[in-house]
From TrEMBL:
Protein name as annotated: DUF2828 domain-containing protein
Ranges where the DUF2828 domain occurs: 3-175
Lineage: Eukaryota, Viridiplantae, Streptophyta, Embryophyta, Tracheophyta
Segments crossing the lipid bilayer: none
Source organism of this protein record: Prunus armeniaca
Short name of one Pfam family: DUF2828
Length: 179
């Protein structure tokens, strides 16, 4: 990643771009291909997929801060807000399913989340389709170069393409499209 020492800021800016101008990001992904940054395509896809999870965590943290700052005074302990929150928390605890500890269950949950996002979010679907298209095109081109003996034309995409059960594949399910 020459020229980009601050990877985290780079990815955050791309996530912002996807949130505010998804078509712009999707149509400019070809630049990453020209630079040979195939792994970055997967990282962008992964981070965009994680947005709803991160936003839900942040929202809950802000809600908790607000509640703690307001309800820590003894005279407010019996306020309606505190009582409602306590009831809500109690109901959640009753309904809460045991924490997922089995690796297989975690993978299934992640796969369901990825499929749901792909089916219900057209902007994510466009991004996913373009990234998978890039990998398919480059892998096909590399195979043709290999068969014709033009080894110098082979790109690094095969090295960076996610394999089945790799971390990117279990999160984004991109292998099923590439295969």
């Amino acid at each position: 990643m020459a020229g980009r020492p601050n990877k985290e800021a780079f990815y955050k800016s791309l996530v912002w771009l996807n949130k505010n101008h998804p078509l712009t990001l999707a149509l400019n992904l070809k630049v990453f291909v020209e630079l040979g940054w195939f792994k970055d395509l997967l990282e962008i896809l992964y981070r965009v997929l994680q947005i709803p999870i991160d936003e839900a965590k942040k929202e809950e943290e802000e809600r908790q801060k607000l509640r703690n700052s307001y309800c820590n005074w003894p005279r407010y302990w019996s306020c309606d807000w505190c009582i409602d929150e306590a009831k809500e928390k109690e109901e959640k605890e009753k309904e809460e399913i045991k924490p997922v500890t089995d690796v297989r269950e975690v993978r299934i949950a992640r796969a369901k989340s990825a499929v749901d996002r792909y089916q219900n979010d057209p902007e994510y679907r466009l991004l996913h389709d373009i990234v998978s298209e890039v990998f398919v095109e480059k892998l096909t081109s590399d195979l043709l170069s290999l068969e014709s003996g033009e080894i110098e034309k082979i790109s690094s995409v095969s090295k960076l393409c996610p394999s089945i059960d790799s971390s990117y594949d279990t999160e984004t399910l991109i292998w099923f499209v590439i295969d």
